[in-house]
Protein backbone atom coordinates (compact mmCIF):
# COMPACT_ATOMS: atom_id res chain seq x y z
CA UNK A 1 0.00 0.00 0.00
CA UNK A 2 1.32 3.42 -0.84
CA UNK A 3 2.04 5.78 2.01
CA UNK A 4 -0.17 8.64 3.10
CA UNK A 5 1.06 12.07 2.04
CA UNK A 6 1.26 15.27 4.08
CA UNK A 7 1.43 18.75 2.58
CA UNK A 8 1.45 21.86 4.66
CA UNK A 9 3.32 25.12 4.89
CA UNK A 10 3.72 28.68 6.05
CA UNK A 11 3.91 32.10 4.49
CA UNK A 12 7.38 33.62 4.91
CA UNK A 13 6.00 36.91 6.21
CA UNK A 14 8.00 36.76 9.43
CA UNK A 15 9.32 34.26 11.94
CA UNK A 16 7.04 31.56 13.28
CA UNK A 17 5.29 31.94 16.62
CA UNK A 18 3.76 29.74 19.31
CA UNK A 19 0.41 29.86 17.46
CA UNK A 20 2.05 28.08 14.53
CA UNK A 21 3.66 25.69 16.96
CA UNK A 22 0.45 24.62 18.65
CA UNK A 23 -1.75 24.95 15.54
CA UNK A 24 0.39 23.07 13.05
CA UNK A 25 4.12 22.53 13.66
CA UNK A 26 3.64 20.13 16.56
CA UNK A 27 1.28 17.95 14.55
CA UNK A 28 3.66 17.95 11.60
CA UNK A 29 6.45 16.59 13.77
CA UNK A 30 4.15 13.88 15.13
CA UNK A 31 3.07 12.83 11.63
CA UNK A 32 6.67 12.97 10.38
CA UNK A 33 7.95 10.79 13.19
CA UNK A 34 5.14 8.23 12.86
CA UNK A 35 6.83 7.02 9.67
CA UNK A 36 3.43 6.54 7.96
CA UNK A 37 3.65 9.60 5.73
CA UNK A 38 5.59 11.16 2.90
CA UNK A 39 5.96 14.70 4.21
CA UNK A 40 6.09 17.85 2.11
CA UNK A 41 6.49 21.16 3.91
CA UNK A 42 6.32 24.26 1.82
CA UNK A 43 7.55 27.79 2.40
CA UNK A 44 4.78 29.66 0.59
CA UNK A 45 6.62 32.68 -0.81
CA UNK A 46 4.33 33.03 -3.83
CA UNK A 47 1.34 33.12 -1.53
CA UNK A 48 3.09 35.64 0.73
CA UNK A 49 3.54 37.88 -2.31
CA UNK A 50 -0.25 38.10 -2.78
CA UNK A 51 -0.45 40.76 -0.08
CA UNK A 52 3.22 41.84 -0.05
CA UNK A 53 3.91 42.47 -3.73
CA UNK A 54 5.55 45.79 -2.94
CA UNK A 55 7.64 44.40 -0.12
CA UNK A 56 9.38 41.30 -1.48
CA UNK A 57 12.36 42.02 0.77
CA UNK A 58 10.29 40.97 3.78
CA UNK A 59 9.60 37.63 2.13
CA UNK A 60 13.22 37.12 1.14
CA UNK A 61 14.40 37.82 4.66
CA UNK A 62 11.78 35.58 6.25
CA UNK A 63 12.49 32.55 4.06
CA UNK A 64 15.57 31.38 5.95
CA UNK A 65 14.00 32.32 9.30
CA UNK A 66 11.07 30.01 8.63
CA UNK A 67 13.47 27.26 7.54
CA UNK A 68 15.33 27.65 10.85
CA UNK A 69 12.06 27.57 12.79
CA UNK A 70 11.22 24.25 11.12
CA UNK A 71 14.51 22.70 12.13
CA UNK A 72 14.19 24.16 15.62
CA UNK A 73 10.85 22.42 16.32
CA UNK A 74 12.12 19.07 15.05
CA UNK A 75 11.23 18.93 11.38
CA UNK A 76 13.91 16.63 10.04
CA UNK A 77 15.04 17.01 6.41
CA UNK A 78 15.85 13.29 6.37
CA UNK A 79 12.17 12.56 6.92
CA UNK A 80 10.43 15.65 5.47
CA UNK A 81 10.88 17.39 2.12
CA UNK A 82 11.10 21.13 2.64
CA UNK A 83 10.43 23.14 -0.51
CA UNK A 84 10.14 26.72 -1.73
CA UNK A 85 6.86 27.37 -3.53
CA UNK A 86 8.06 29.84 -6.20
CA UNK A 87 10.78 27.40 -7.27
CA UNK A 88 8.19 24.74 -8.20
CA UNK A 89 6.63 26.22 -11.37
CA UNK A 90 4.13 23.38 -11.79
CA UNK A 91 2.21 24.85 -8.84
CA UNK A 92 1.52 28.06 -10.77
CA UNK A 93 0.37 26.18 -13.84
CA UNK A 94 -1.98 23.96 -11.82
CA UNK A 95 -3.43 27.11 -10.24
CA UNK A 96 -4.26 28.46 -13.73
CA UNK A 97 -6.19 25.31 -14.64
CA UNK A 98 -8.08 25.14 -11.32
CA UNK A 99 -9.13 28.81 -11.55
CA UNK A 100 -11.46 27.84 -14.38
CA UNK A 101 -13.29 25.41 -12.12
CA UNK A 102 -14.09 28.01 -9.43
CA UNK A 103 -16.51 30.92 -9.49
CA UNK A 104 -15.72 34.44 -8.32
CA UNK A 105 -18.84 34.25 -6.11
CA UNK A 106 -17.44 31.14 -4.39
CA UNK A 107 -14.10 32.85 -3.77
CA UNK A 108 -15.87 35.86 -2.27
CA UNK A 109 -17.65 33.61 0.24
CA UNK A 110 -14.49 32.20 1.88
CA UNK A 111 -14.81 33.30 5.55
CA UNK A 112 -11.05 33.28 6.31
CA UNK A 113 -10.25 35.36 3.25
CA UNK A 114 -13.11 37.74 4.13
CA UNK A 115 -11.70 38.28 7.64
CA UNK A 116 -8.19 38.78 6.29
CA UNK A 117 -9.38 41.30 3.69
CA UNK A 118 -10.98 43.32 6.49
CA UNK A 119 -7.87 43.07 8.70
CA UNK A 120 -5.56 44.13 5.94
CA UNK A 121 -7.71 47.16 5.10
CA UNK A 122 -7.42 46.65 1.33
CA UNK A 123 -10.63 48.62 0.79
CA UNK A 124 -11.52 48.39 -2.89
CA UNK A 125 -7.97 47.36 -3.79
CA UNK A 126 -7.94 43.63 -3.03
CA UNK A 127 -5.18 42.09 -5.18
CA UNK A 128 -6.69 39.44 -7.46
CA UNK A 129 -3.94 37.07 -6.38
CA UNK A 130 -4.99 37.45 -2.76
CA UNK A 131 -8.61 36.60 -3.49
CA UNK A 132 -7.58 33.45 -5.33
CA UNK A 133 -4.93 32.20 -2.92
CA UNK A 134 -7.19 29.35 -1.74
CA UNK A 135 -7.02 28.04 -5.33
CA UNK A 136 -3.23 28.15 -5.28
CA UNK A 137 -3.41 26.21 -2.00
CA UNK A 138 -5.50 23.61 -3.81
CA UNK A 139 -2.68 23.40 -6.36
CA UNK A 140 -0.08 22.97 -3.61
CA UNK A 141 -2.02 20.22 -1.86
CA UNK A 142 -3.01 18.29 -4.97
CA UNK A 143 0.39 18.57 -6.69
CA UNK A 144 1.75 16.22 -4.04
CA UNK A 145 -1.46 14.16 -3.89
CA UNK A 146 -1.60 14.95 -0.19
CA UNK A 147 -4.42 13.31 1.75
CA UNK A 148 -3.46 14.86 5.10
CA UNK A 149 -3.00 18.57 5.81
CA UNK A 150 -1.95 19.51 9.35
CA UNK A 151 -3.14 23.10 9.84
CA UNK A 152 -4.91 25.45 12.24
CA UNK A 153 -8.69 26.06 12.22
CA UNK A 154 -8.40 29.10 9.94
CA UNK A 155 -7.51 26.74 7.11
CA UNK A 156 -10.73 24.72 7.20
CA UNK A 157 -12.37 26.76 4.37
CA UNK A 158 -9.26 26.24 2.20
CA UNK A 159 -9.54 22.49 2.61
CA UNK A 160 -13.22 22.56 1.69
CA UNK A 161 -12.36 24.62 -1.39
CA UNK A 162 -9.64 22.13 -2.33
CA UNK A 163 -12.00 19.16 -1.99
CA UNK A 164 -14.52 20.91 -4.25
CA UNK A 165 -11.84 21.54 -6.88
CA UNK A 166 -10.69 17.92 -6.71
CA UNK A 167 -14.22 16.61 -7.18
CA UNK A 168 -14.99 19.07 -9.99
CA UNK A 169 -11.72 18.30 -11.77
CA UNK A 170 -12.08 14.53 -11.57
CA UNK A 171 -15.73 14.71 -12.67
CA UNK A 172 -15.18 17.25 -15.47
CA UNK A 173 -12.23 15.46 -17.03
CA UNK A 174 -13.49 12.01 -16.19
CA UNK A 175 -10.27 10.88 -14.56
CA UNK A 176 -9.30 10.01 -11.00
CA UNK A 177 -6.18 12.14 -11.05
CA UNK A 178 -6.53 14.32 -7.96
CA UNK A 179 -6.84 13.23 -4.32
CA UNK A 180 -9.25 14.75 -1.76
CA UNK A 181 -7.39 15.93 1.34
CA UNK A 182 -8.48 15.90 4.97
CA UNK A 183 -7.39 18.48 7.51
CA UNK A 184 -5.42 17.25 10.50
CA UNK A 185 -6.38 19.70 13.21
CA UNK A 186 -5.17 20.13 16.77
CA UNK A 187 -7.62 19.11 19.53
CA UNK A 188 -10.59 21.49 19.83
CA UNK A 189 -9.66 24.89 21.18
CA UNK A 190 -5.98 24.70 20.16
CA UNK A 191 -6.49 25.48 16.50
CA UNK A 192 -6.47 29.23 16.88
CA UNK A 193 -4.23 30.71 19.53
CA UNK A 194 -5.19 34.30 20.41
CA UNK A 195 -2.58 37.06 20.31
CA UNK A 196 -0.95 38.57 23.39
CA UNK A 197 -3.14 41.65 22.78
CA UNK A 198 -6.34 39.59 23.15
CA UNK A 199 -7.00 39.56 19.37
CA UNK A 200 -8.71 36.33 18.28
CA UNK A 201 -5.65 35.14 16.32
CA UNK A 202 -1.95 35.39 16.94
CA UNK A 203 -0.64 36.35 13.53
CA UNK A 204 2.64 37.43 11.99
CA UNK A 205 0.82 40.26 10.23
CA UNK A 206 -0.82 41.56 13.43
CA UNK A 207 2.41 41.79 15.37
CA UNK A 208 0.89 40.18 18.45
CA UNK A 209 2.97 37.04 18.72
CA UNK A 210 5.49 35.28 20.90
CA UNK A 211 8.07 34.01 18.43
CA UNK A 212 9.99 30.75 18.63
CA UNK A 213 13.17 32.79 18.18
CA UNK A 214 12.37 35.38 20.88
CA UNK A 215 15.00 35.60 23.62
CA UNK A 216 14.03 34.74 27.21
CA UNK A 217 14.04 38.48 27.96
CA UNK A 218 11.66 39.31 25.15
CA UNK A 219 9.33 36.45 26.09
CA UNK A 220 9.20 37.73 29.65
CA UNK A 221 8.46 41.31 28.55
CA UNK A 222 5.71 40.17 26.19
CA UNK A 223 4.04 38.03 28.84
CA UNK A 224 4.23 40.83 31.41
CA UNK A 225 2.43 43.12 28.93
CA UNK A 226 -0.22 40.54 28.05
CA UNK A 227 -3.94 41.18 27.91
CA UNK A 228 -5.77 39.91 31.02
CA UNK A 229 -9.01 41.24 32.51
CA UNK A 230 -9.06 45.04 32.14
CA UNK A 231 -11.32 45.32 35.22
CA UNK A 232 -8.97 43.33 37.45
CA UNK A 233 -7.11 46.27 38.94
CA UNK A 234 -6.31 45.35 42.55
CA UNK A 235 -5.05 41.96 43.68
CA UNK A 236 -8.12 41.48 45.86
CA UNK A 237 -10.57 42.22 43.00
CA UNK A 238 -12.40 39.22 41.51
CA UNK A 239 -11.13 38.61 37.96
CA UNK A 240 -12.48 37.14 34.72
CA UNK A 241 -11.02 33.88 33.45
CA UNK A 242 -12.91 33.77 30.14
CA UNK A 243 -11.20 35.83 27.47
CA UNK A 244 -8.17 36.24 29.73
CA UNK A 245 -5.31 35.34 27.42
CA UNK A 246 -2.93 34.36 30.24
CA UNK A 247 -5.34 31.59 31.25
CA UNK A 248 -5.86 30.57 27.62
CA UNK A 249 -2.10 30.02 27.32
CA UNK A 250 -1.91 28.22 30.68
CA UNK A 251 -4.76 25.93 29.53
CA UNK A 252 -2.75 25.02 26.47
CA UNK A 253 0.86 24.94 27.61
CA UNK A 254 0.87 24.25 31.39
CA UNK A 255 1.45 20.54 32.09
CA UNK A 256 -0.09 20.87 35.60
CA UNK A 257 -3.75 21.45 34.77
CA UNK A 258 -5.01 20.83 38.32
CA UNK A 259 -2.83 23.71 39.52
CA UNK A 260 -4.29 25.86 36.70
CA UNK A 261 -7.83 24.98 37.88
CA UNK A 262 -6.92 26.14 41.41
CA UNK A 263 -5.44 29.38 40.08
CA UNK A 264 -8.62 30.03 38.12
CA UNK A 265 -10.77 29.58 41.23
CA UNK A 266 -8.52 31.91 43.19
CA UNK A 267 -8.51 34.51 40.41
CA UNK A 268 -12.30 34.51 40.12
CA UNK A 269 -12.66 34.80 43.86
CA UNK A 270 -10.09 37.60 44.19
CA UNK A 271 -6.64 37.58 45.77
CA UNK A 272 -4.48 36.50 42.85
CA UNK A 273 -2.54 39.22 41.08
CA UNK A 274 -1.77 39.34 37.37
CA UNK A 275 1.97 39.56 37.99
CA UNK A 276 2.08 36.30 39.92
CA UNK A 277 -0.01 34.59 37.28
CA UNK A 278 2.18 35.91 34.49
CA UNK A 279 5.35 34.76 36.26
CA UNK A 280 3.98 31.24 36.17
CA UNK A 281 3.30 31.58 32.46
CA UNK A 282 6.86 32.82 31.87
CA UNK A 283 8.18 29.58 33.45
CA UNK A 284 5.74 27.43 31.50
CA UNK A 285 6.64 29.05 28.17
CA UNK A 286 10.35 28.91 28.88
CA UNK A 287 10.07 25.13 29.42
CA UNK A 288 8.58 24.87 25.92
CA UNK A 289 10.78 27.46 24.21
CA UNK A 290 14.27 26.90 25.67
CA UNK A 291 15.01 23.65 23.78
CA UNK A 292 13.53 25.10 20.56
CA UNK A 293 15.63 28.26 20.91
CA UNK A 294 18.80 26.25 21.57
CA UNK A 295 18.30 24.03 18.52
CA UNK A 296 17.57 27.11 16.40
CA UNK A 297 20.84 28.74 17.46
CA UNK A 298 22.79 25.58 16.67
CA UNK A 299 21.33 25.30 13.13
CA UNK A 300 21.85 29.03 12.51
CA UNK A 301 25.62 28.48 12.74
CA UNK A 302 25.59 26.80 9.32
CA UNK A 303 23.21 28.68 7.03
CA UNK A 304 24.88 27.08 4.01
CA UNK A 305 23.56 23.72 5.15
CA UNK A 306 20.07 25.18 5.65
CA UNK A 307 20.13 26.58 2.13
CA UNK A 308 21.28 23.22 0.74
CA UNK A 309 18.36 21.56 2.52
CA UNK A 310 15.98 23.90 0.64
CA UNK A 311 17.72 23.25 -2.69
CA UNK A 312 17.51 19.47 -2.23
CA UNK A 313 13.91 19.54 -0.99
CA UNK A 314 12.76 21.78 -3.83
CA UNK A 315 14.43 19.53 -6.44
CA UNK A 316 12.62 16.51 -5.03
CA UNK A 317 9.32 18.43 -4.91
CA UNK A 318 9.66 19.42 -8.58
CA UNK A 319 9.84 15.78 -9.64
CA UNK A 320 6.59 14.93 -7.83
CA UNK A 321 4.72 18.10 -8.87
CA UNK A 322 5.77 17.75 -12.53
CA UNK A 323 4.43 14.21 -12.57
CA UNK A 324 1.02 15.40 -11.29
CA UNK A 325 1.05 18.29 -13.77
CA UNK A 326 1.64 15.84 -16.63
CA UNK A 327 -1.37 13.79 -15.47
CA UNK A 328 -3.50 16.93 -15.17
CA UNK A 329 -2.56 18.11 -18.66
CA UNK A 330 -3.29 14.67 -20.06
CA UNK A 331 -6.68 14.58 -18.32
CA UNK A 332 -7.62 17.94 -19.86
CA UNK A 333 -6.25 16.83 -23.22
CA UNK A 334 -3.35 19.27 -23.28
CA UNK A 335 -0.84 16.53 -24.00
CA UNK A 336 -0.56 17.23 -27.71
CA UNK A 337 3.12 16.51 -27.99
CA UNK A 338 3.40 13.51 -25.65
CA UNK A 339 4.74 10.45 -27.38
P1 LIG B 1 0.07 35.83 8.11
O1 LIG B 1 -0.40 36.85 9.10
O2 LIG B 1 1.17 36.27 7.23
O3 LIG B 1 -1.06 35.16 7.37
P2 LIG B 1 0.02 33.68 10.00
O4 LIG B 1 0.54 33.97 11.35
O5 LIG B 1 -1.45 33.63 9.78
O6 LIG B 1 0.72 34.71 9.02
P3 LIG B 1 0.42 31.49 8.18
O7 LIG B 1 1.76 31.33 7.54
O8 LIG B 1 -0.69 32.11 7.40
O9 LIG B 1 0.65 32.33 9.54
O10 LIG B 1 -0.08 30.10 8.76
C1 LIG B 1 0.73 28.94 8.84
C2 LIG B 1 0.06 27.83 9.62
O11 LIG B 1 -0.06 28.17 11.00
C3 LIG B 1 -1.36 27.48 9.17
O12 LIG B 1 -1.50 26.08 9.27
C4 LIG B 1 -2.24 28.17 10.16
O13 LIG B 1 -3.47 27.48 10.32
C5 LIG B 1 -1.40 28.05 11.44
N1 LIG B 1 -1.68 29.19 12.33
C6 LIG B 1 -1.41 30.49 12.09
N2 LIG B 1 -1.75 31.26 13.13
C7 LIG B 1 -2.26 30.42 14.07
C8 LIG B 1 -2.79 30.61 15.41
N3 LIG B 1 -2.87 31.82 15.95
N4 LIG B 1 -3.20 29.51 16.10
C9 LIG B 1 -3.12 28.29 15.54
N5 LIG B 1 -2.61 28.03 14.31
C10 LIG B 1 -2.19 29.08 13.57
MG1 LIG C 1 -2.26 33.38 7.72
From TrEMBL:
Signal peptide: none annotated. One of its GO terms (biological process) is tryptophanyl-tRNA aminoacylation. One of its GO terms (cellular component) is cytosol. It holds the Pfam family tRNA-synt_1b. InterPro entries: aa-tRNA-synth_I_CS (IPR001412), aa-tRNA-synth_Ic (IPR002305), Rossmann-like_a/b/a_fold (IPR014729), Trp-tRNA-ligase (IPR002306), Trp-tRNA_synthetase (IPR050203). It catalyses: tRNA(Trp) + L-tryptophan + ATP = L-tryptophyl-tRNA(Trp) + AMP + diphosphate + H(+). The keyword Aminoacyl-tRNA synthetase applies. CDD domains: TrpRS_core. Keywords: Aminoacyl-tRNA synthetase, ATP-binding, Ligase, Nucleotide-binding, Protein biosynthesis. Its EC number is 6.1.1.2. GO terms for molecular function: ATP binding; tryptophan-tRNA ligase activity. The keyword Aminoacyl-tRNA synthetase applies. Belongs to the class-I aminoacyl-tRNA synthetase family. This is Tryptophan--tRNA ligase. It comes from Lacticaseibacillus nasuensis JCM 17158. The lineage of its organism: Bacteria, Bacillati, Bacillota, Bacilli, Lactobacillales.
Amino acid sequence: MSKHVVLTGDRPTGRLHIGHYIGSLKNRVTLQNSGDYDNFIMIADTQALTDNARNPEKIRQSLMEVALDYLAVGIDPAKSTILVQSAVPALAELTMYYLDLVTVARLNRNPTVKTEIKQKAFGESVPAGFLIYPVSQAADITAFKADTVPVGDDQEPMLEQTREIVRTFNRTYNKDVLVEPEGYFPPKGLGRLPGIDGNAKMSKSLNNGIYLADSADVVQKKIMSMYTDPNHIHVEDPGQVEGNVVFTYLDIFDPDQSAVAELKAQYQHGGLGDVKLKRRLVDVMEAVLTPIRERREAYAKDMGAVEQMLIDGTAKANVVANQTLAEVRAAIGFNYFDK
